[in-house]
Automatic annotation (TrEMBL):
<dbReference type="InterPro" id="IPR036397">
    <property type="entry name" value="RNaseH_sf"/>
</dbReference>
<feature type="domain" description="Integrase catalytic">
    <location>
        <begin position="132"/>
        <end position="295"/>
    </location>
</feature>
<dbReference type="InterPro" id="IPR012337">
    <property type="entry name" value="RNaseH-like_sf"/>
</dbReference>
<dbReference type="Pfam" id="PF13333">
    <property type="entry name" value="rve_2"/>
</dbReference>
<comment type="function">
    <text>Involved in the transposition of the insertion sequence.</text>
</comment>
<dbReference type="Pfam" id="PF13276">
    <property type="entry name" value="HTH_21"/>
</dbReference>
<dbReference type="InterPro" id="IPR048020">
    <property type="entry name" value="Transpos_IS3"/>
</dbReference>
<dbReference type="InterPro" id="IPR025948">
    <property type="entry name" value="HTH-like_dom"/>
</dbReference>
<protein>
    <submittedName>
        <fullName>IS2 transposase TnpB</fullName>
    </submittedName>
</protein>
<dbReference type="InterPro" id="IPR050900">
    <property type="entry name" value="Transposase_IS3/IS150/IS904"/>
</dbReference>
<dbReference type="Pfam" id="PF00665">
    <property type="entry name" value="rve"/>
</dbReference>
<dbReference type="InterPro" id="IPR001584">
    <property type="entry name" value="Integrase_cat-core"/>
</dbReference>
Amino acid sequence: MKLSQTRQDHLYRAIQSVQSEHGFSVNLLCELLQLPRSSYYKWLNRKESPREKVNQELLDTMLLLYEKVEGIFGYRQLTIHVTRQIGYPVNHKRIYRLMKVAGIKAVIRRKRKSYIRSTPQHIAENLLNRQFTAQTSNEKWVTDVTEFKYGNGQKAYLSAILDLYDKSIVSYVIGHSNNNPLVFKTLKLALKTTPGATPMLHSDRGFQYTSLRFKKRLVSKGLTQSMSRVGKCIDNGPMESFWGTLKCEKYYLHKYPTFEDLKNAIEQYIYFYNYERLQKKLNSLCPMEFRTKTA
C-alpha cells in the first residue's frame, strides 16, 4: 500500500494506473479529472522526501505485522513491535497517524458476562490486595477459569495460572467441564514446571478455589492462598486482563467448529503471548525474554 497525502496525489496515482494498464492518453485522463497535465508530470517525476520514504517503510512494516497477527494490534503494540523490528525508536503518535492513513485499527473488546456466585466452603483473605507486581518469579501467581464456545454452542473451559513477575502463563488446562479436576490439574502442572516454588496463589471465590480439597492441596505444597473480595473483579485484575486480551486477539476473530480447533487456537495464542507478544511494561520484551534476562 502506498501513502496518499492529498486528494491530488490519489488522483495522480489513478491516472498513472489507468494509463499503464489500459494505455489511455494522459491528456485525456487529465482533462477528465480537470487536472493540469504539467502538474501530473511534475508529480510523476518528483522525488520522495526522506520523511516520505521512512513513512512508507514504517507503513509496510506495520501492515505485515498487522496481517501476521490478524489485526489484533493497536497503535501501542504496533509501536513496540515496529521499534524492535526496525531497530530505532518510533513515536507512538506517528504510528497512530499512519494507522489512520492506512485505515487499520485494532479489534474492539467485548463486554464480560456476569456469573452466579457459589456458596464457599472456605474463604481466604485478600492478601494480594491489588499489589500486582512481584520482585522475583514464582513469588505471586494469579489464577482463574474462563468459558469459550465452539461448534453449535458447546462449551469449553480454560484454567490458567499467571506469574505477576513477568505476566507469563505458567500453566493452563483446557477441558469440557468447569470442575475441580480442571483447576487441580492446572496447579499440578504449574508446580511441576517450577519445582520447589511456594508462591502466593490468588483467585476469585469460584467454587473450585473455595473448596476444602483445594485448600488442602495448597497447604500440602506450601502455597499461601489469597482470594478476591465479593464482587471485586479488579482484585484479580491481571488474570481478567489476560482473558480479555486472549479473547480479543484470538477467540473473537474466528469460528471453531470442533473442540480441537478451539484448543489448537488457544495453545497457539498462549505460545505467542509467552514468547512473541512484546509488552511495554516488560521493557518491550515478551514474558519469557524478560524472565531470561532478569534471571
